[in-house]
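tool=predict chain=A
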Amino acid sequence: RFPFLFVVSLFFGYFMQLVRTQKVLRDQAEHKNRGKAELLNVLSHELKTPLTVITSFSQALKGEMLGRVNAEQSAALGKILQQSDTLLEIMNAILDTASIETSAAEVRKDEVALCELMNELKVDYQGVIDNSQRLLVWEYSASLPKVITDAAKVKIILRNLINNAVKFTEKGEVRVTARHDAEQNRVEFSIKDTGVGIDKTQSGLIFHKFWQADAAKIKDHGGMGLGLYIVKEFCELLGGTVSVKSALGQGSEFKVSLPAR
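tool=predict ok
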């Protein structure tokens, strides 16, 4: 009986040590994640503030609010604004990715008017395409219902997909649609383009972190290959899915399906 009790006590002591060790490791991980989240908040503020100033003054100069500018100066300011937008896009992608990996990405469930959300997105993209060979087409009904979801994350999902579509479509159109599937009680979004498309051999990789198409296609577009990774992760956070149908040289169509409740 004594050896049995001795073994039981040893086992119990070992088990408690494991529990204590697990708690210590969990606390350390949570502390590390909080530290990362705090660092990201600081970086976000410290980097975005000067970028906002640069963008604001560039817009003021380009709009001749501070005096006349010649054609060459206006073109240079246009490039500054374009690169500022690219930098902001990269910063947001890094912050979104880090929030996912530090478990700091929280889901807020609020009542969202889908039509208003789409209207806001449409306004954001006014003037983005200034090439007569391309069109940005919006298709959604004014009768789209109110749903319970995280509006900020839905916008991030759609912006990443729209930005990708615009980036890789030189001619034709990018068509953004939204509809409500009443039978399934889901919201369905589609972003379809007539761009370069995706090679079928790479279709299984596109949602991986840092994935990019071959260098010949992206050399003039930049980016870090985080957009589609963020789309997939945020879709899953919201209880939804994302899929793609594409062929090289024949454009792409990304479909996002999210629960309406």
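The beta strands are 110-113, 134-139, 146-149, 172-181, 186-193, 241-246, 252-259. The first strand starts at residue 110 and ends at 113.
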